[in-house]
Amino acid sequence: METNDLAAKITRLSLSRKVTVLVLFLTILAIGLIATNRLPLEMEPKGAEGHGIYVRTSWRSGVPLESMEKIGIPMEEELSTVRGLDSMYTRCSTGSASVDLRFKQGTDMDVAYREVRDRMERARVGFPDVK
Fold first, then answer.
1. 3-class SS at 122?
2. Helices (DSSP H) in 17-101: which residue ranges?
3. Using alpha carbons only, what angle is made at residue 49 by residues 86 and 124, rounded to the nearest 5 degrees?
4. By percentage, how much of the chain surpasses pLDDT 70?
């Protein structure tokens, strides 16, 4: 019964002193916004990193089939040699080719990123000129 009594008192106070409750609410909101802006948070906290890398290459003049032949397949061939790779999904559309790489649990993503970057540099040599 004490909980209902407390709730009734808070309700009566809120209805009788509307301005006080509004000012209290705005004060709590302002403190929350200030605290949120000043907290030093990382974009991705340690332990919450994903196990995937997405690579997209644009090419204006290609149709999907041509994008697959001239960009998608060379990307697949180079990226398939990255250590710790679990799965790879390639998608080509008009003007672009993209590869979604998923890595095994426990793979060092910093090393994987460097390997993907190196493999893409190698594959880029065989890409058609971008106009």
1. helix
2. 18-38, 64-67, 73-79
3. 55
4. 89
81 within some domain: yes
Residue 30 to residues 23, 33, 77, Cα–Cα distance (Å) = 10, 5, 54
Cβ-defined contacts of 44-51 (< 8 Å, 24+): 49/109, 50/109, 51/86, 51/102, 51/103, 51/104, 51/105, 51/107, 51/109
Q: Return the residue matching tokens 């919450």.
A: 48
Torsion of CA 67, 71, 72, 75, to 10 degrees: -170
Tell me the per-residue pLDDT of 35-83, one tens digit each, with 9 for 90 and over: 887 776 555 555 556 788 999 988 877 778 888 888 888 899 999 989 9
In this structure, are residues 101 and 85 in contact, taking their beta carbons and an 8 Å threshold?
A: yes
Residues 61 and 90 in one domain: yes
Query: Can you give the residue range of the structural domain that contains 75?
Result: 52-124
Backbone φ and ψ of 44, nearest 5°: -130, 105
